[in-house]
Fold:
Amino acid sequence: MSEPLMTADLVHLDVEPAGDKSAVIGQMADLIAATGRSDRDGLEAGLLAREESFATGMPGGFAIPHCRTEAVHEAALGLLRLTEPVDFGSADGPADLVIGISAPAGTDDQHLRLLAQLSRALVRPEFLASLRSAATSQEAADLVMGVIEPEPEPASAASSSAGDSAPAPAPSSAPSDGTAADAPERAASPNPSAAAEDSPVLLAITSCPTGIAHTYMAAESLETAAAEKGVRLHVETQGSGGITPFTSEQIAEASALIVAADVNISGRERFAGMPVIEHPVKRAISHGSEMVDEAVAAARDPRARKVPAGADDGGAEASSGSGGAGASSAAAVSWPKRIQAAVMTGVSYMIPFVAAGGLLMALGFLLGGFDVSYVAQDVATGNSLTNLPGHLSYDGASGQEMTSRAGLLLYLGAVAFAIGSAGMGFLVAALSGFIAFGLAGRPGIAPGFIGGAISVTVGAGFLGGLVTGLLAGLIALGLASLRPPRWLAGLMPVVIIPLVTSGIVAGAMLLVLGRPLAWVMEALQNALTGMSGTSAILLGVILGLMMCVDLGGPINKAAYLFATAGLSQGTEASFHIMAAVMAAGMVPPLAMALSTAVRRSLYTQVERENGTTAWLLGASFISEGAIPFAAADPLRVIPSMMAGGAVTGALSMAFGVGSQAPHGGIFVFFAISPVWGYVLAIVIGTLLAAALVTVLKEQHARRVRREAAAA
Structure:
């Protein structure tokens, strides 16, 4: 590496915080960007997005905002020691040490190993104390680099067991604090007074969404707790630096498994039948000792929850963020949350089909004309670049008509439309298959896809896909929980579960559920198609409000799911709904960008810079661009955005705007018709929302000034 990860110019001591944690993250972005290692706005956006999805405050009074993004040119560590602690979302209290970790999107394994070593050191109180007492920036930088790049240790002190997590030597000043490299050695030499002779061997898997910090901090915390209790523990970190899996010997001698993760772990099927406790990764950092105790108790309890046969990385037993310090791992995830997560998994996997298929169909219309859909299949398969079509006749609404275009444009348009149509044909099957995957893992995929295909066959559409996905996932999950004989266990996930589940789900759709769901789907389509005037505008208002009330949250996602799933029907009504949803979702970031440009004095420097970024986010249909503003001032920002979104949704419906693209904002203009109506609806809604939030903020600022003067 050309430069150390941390130098003195990346350390600011005794800094006065500029405001809440968002403002401090802005200060961190300033600090790192000043060294030329990243683009300031892109880094701040990455850090804020990570913070929104998962608070980075940690027990011990420190925070580790971190991200991997294209905005980072060279990996860096920044340190802010604050004069006043700031709340970063830790139940343990606010943070006075803020360590920012910025890594390029293509970070190599070397950098990730170094960042892992730092993450492990941060759970040690004496290391944090040394950072708090550092007299100069250089001293603090040396302390951090001493952890990341320690002096070589004698060979006799560096021996460790193979197969455990990546090495993370402690600084030479504190050799007694072992890390991943010496954790097995510590566990193998337990404190006799703290351990029972029959202490079980434990396995632990840690993983977090970015795989940079929490993954390794949780590993260090669990290793330290196990060593204090004299318990042998092997840890597998599933982080961004890759996975060093357990050896077969380690799995064979283990008595229980600890899973500390906020994402689905891979290779869960290796532990079929093993007692397991499961919690979010942050609990392992703050309550590692309790988790070790729970795992020891589970190993000795014949009724303890076990990893089911056929379990997989798909999430049948995925961890969630619901487990508190005293929560039971057996009830870590409620069924409503699991079903909601599975549906969102299905939607997330379905959207690429919608995007690719919808945009290709729109491109087909752009090239081949509005009537290309009538002849696309025949032209794409019957013509070629050396045999271009002329004007072709087709059965239109008023009888025999001729295509408006011919030659190369018609041929290319027909090819694009045919490819897009094929892609759109997978929507319901993909939705159903990956909903089942979200519930049952890999064994649910085939039954879900088959059920979705049957739904299309019987006319049940995306409603049928939702039902078959959930049904397939639940049945596959139930079958996976069975305890078959050992000779049959290997066939369960690849043969028995898919076969039995597919037969039940497909049979249920054809024999019982298909016709009622098809009737409901037809009634829904007729209702949407028949909407005009006031009813269509009212639907636009409702969708606009839903898109702006929580800016990327569950309500926003529900409206987006309704719109994207409807695209599979290919009706004008579904295109109108998609346009209203996308237009309304663009309003919040655009409105906040406009407000920060018009009345800069109402906003902090960080907010003004966020406003500049929000122009592009809004134009791209990324509603989350307004989250920093809503988080800082929800009472004035959210109602204003809802008003603007409602007006935009209503106008989009009133103008009859349709969108065949599920995402992309203004950049997919060729898939939107009429474009003028789309743009006008967005402009009017943006102006209204910006005006409302500006007026409300001005009134608040005047009231604050009056109160200050009166005091």
About this structure: The two ends are 56 Å apart (CA to CA). Residues 155-196, 312-332 have pLDDT under 50 and may be disordered.
